[in-house]
Specification:
Blueprint: E1 6-8, E2 11-13, E3 17-19, H1 28-37, E4 41-47, E5 62-67, E6 70-77, H2 86-99, E7 104-109, H3 115-128, E8 132-136, H4 150-153, H5 156-169, E9 174-177, H6 185-194, E10 199-202, E11 206-208, E12 230-233, H7 238-250, E13 259-262, H8 268-276, E14 281-284, H9 286-291, H10 295-309, E15 337-342, H11 352-360, E16 365-369, E17 375-379, H12 389-393, E18 400-405, H13 414-418
Parallel strand pairs: 3-4, 3-14, 4-7, 7-8, 8-9, 9-10, 10-13, 13-14
Antiparallel strand pairs: 1-2, 5-6, 6-12, 11-12, 15-18, 16-17
This protein binds flavin mononucleotide.
Flavin mononucleotide binds next to strand 4, strand 6 and helix 9.
């Protein structure tokens, strides 16, 4: 069986499966049960300085999006960092580390933006036995209004400076957890690296309002007769997070910065995708809030079987294999041609592909009503631009497939066509005078 153990900035983890800092890591009892279930590591629910920043949560904190019967396809929350005492958390961290020396305990932290506050809390969690700390620069609600969380992560200079303070105090590795509520994640990752970060974790939650009660006119989650924007996570955010992980892994300035990938992970396939795009460990929140700790059993078995099927003896062989397969649009092969094919034996004559192509794409599907009142459909090859839409809307598995044509053509990109060199620096220079680029 393939070896699932990983090493991230010097920390050995029995597997890449970690819990994200969130309700599933709120107490020592929970983290212990998670380790018993098979999780390799846990990032403790964010601790703060309760004297400087008392935590009072509102009742009614979560709301969600359901999609065609899939509950919690997207989850939104307006919860704050831990509302349990720092003292109690430190005692439980020490106890968990004593009982589970081989599992990784990373402690997430968020305090005021001054070096003394960071120094004080870092010393305390290190004393308790934390294997690493994670700086929460991502929380988009509640704490950000007090100048912490995303308020730090959205300003590269703050990210860099506060990471620097944490590095000056910490003897254990420092992870910086990034907010996705920015324009270009690479700016934030570069700032973290410039501050000395040992690794980055991403993504934290995305600013969101999941919906409005159409009778009371109050957005969700309802708190009295008001609401507040919250942080979005769960399966819906995975594509956004994958792109951000891939951009950091591909950026020449941060490509050696280890990544802990987060966002919408629920299955071993999700885990494999994150690792292929450059993550060393992954973190899970929503899926565990939905289905419990035991989902790690399927992840472990599924990832091991997958590695075996690929002839890989270690999960480390998988890391980053897809990073170079993400390129700028101008480098894609214009000579690559695919066209849709309909398997008439599988077609249920619903006509959905025809409508989608006719109204929403390139009018490349022909149709006629048969004598027995069915809708026959076929691809008009010359008009098909290979956009994939018909295969995406078709309700029958493998009924419409995309077939490669015109083999043997040489690779021809937009750059080749225009006689242009590929852009040397894919990362445009900041025009606002920030000194966070490679030269800084
Ligand atoms: C209810 C809730 C509370 C959270 N609390 C924290 C927190 O205290 N600190 C933190 O860094 N992230 C927090 N998060 C964000 C998660 O750690 C994670 O980054 C995010 O949910 C994306 O992962 P997922 O799609 O697996 O849920 C919280 C998320 C949820 C849903």
């Amino acid at each position: 069986m393939a070896d699932l153990s990983v090493n991230i900035c010097g920390i050995e983890s029995p597997n890449p499966f970690w819990l994200a800092s969130a309700p599933p890591t709120n107490t020592g009892d929970q983290v212990a049960r998670a380790f018993d279930a098979g999780w390799g590591g846990a990032v403790w629910k964010t601790l703060g300085d309760e004297d400087e920043n008392p935590i009072e949560n509102v009742y009614s904190r979560y709301s969600s999006i359901d999609l065609n019967g899939q509950r919690m396809a997207g989850l939104n929350n307006i919860e704050l960092i831990t509302d349990r005492s720092l003292e109690m958390n430190l005692i439980e961290i020490a106890e968990v580390k004593r009982r589970y020396p081989d599992n990784v305990v990373v402690v997430s932290l968020m305090v005021d933006s001054n070096a003394e506050a960071w120094d004080s809390i870092i010393k305390q969690v290190e004393q308790a036995g934390a294997d690493a700390i994670e700086l929460n620069f991502g929380c988009p609600h509640g704490m950000s209004e007090r100048g912490m969380g995303a308020a730090v992560g959205q300003v590269p200079e703050y990210t860099c400076d506060i990471t620097g303070w944490a590095k000056a105090s910490a003897t254990v590795p420092v992870f910086v957890k990034l907010t996705p509520n920015i324009t270009d994640i690479r700016v934030a990752a570069r700032a973290a690296k410039n501050g000395g970060a040992d690794a980055v974790s991403l993504i934290n939650t995305i600013n969101s309002i999941t919906g409005v009660d159409l009778d009371s006119f109050t957005p969700r989650p309802v708190v009295g007769n008001q609401s507040s924007h919250g942080g979005y996570c769960g399966p819906a955010v995975k594509p956004i997070a994958l792109n951000m992980v891939a951009s950091i892994a591909a950026d020449p300035f941060t490509q050696d910065l280890p990544i802990s990938g987060i966002g919408g992970i629920a299955t071993w396939e999700d885990v494999a995708e994150y690792i292929l795009l450059g993550a060393t460990t992954i973190q899970v929140c929503t899926a565990v809030m939905h289905y419990g700790y035991r989902i790690v059993e399927d992840m472990t078995e599924g990832l091991s079987n997958y590695l075996d099927s690929k002839g890989m003896s270690s999960v480390n062989e998988l890391r980053g294999l897809s990073v170079n397969k993400v390129t700028d649009w101008q480098s894609l092969d214009i000579n690559y041609v695919v066209k849709a094919t309909i398997d008439q034996d599988k077609c249920i004559h619903c006509g959905l592909c025809y409508i989608a192509c006719q109204d929403g794409a390139h009018q490349a599907i022909g149709t006629k009503r048969t004598d027995d009142d069915k809708t026959d459909v076929w691809i008009i090859d010359d008009l098909c631009v290979g956009c994939n839409l018909c295969s995406l809307v078709c309700p029958v598995q493998d009924c419409i497939t995309m077939e490669e044509r015109e083999f043997g053509q040489t690779h021809m990109s937009w750059n080749d066509l225009m006689g242009e060199d590929p852009p040397g620096d894919l990362f445009p220079r900041p025009k606002h005078g920030l000194t966070i680029g490679p030269e800084s």
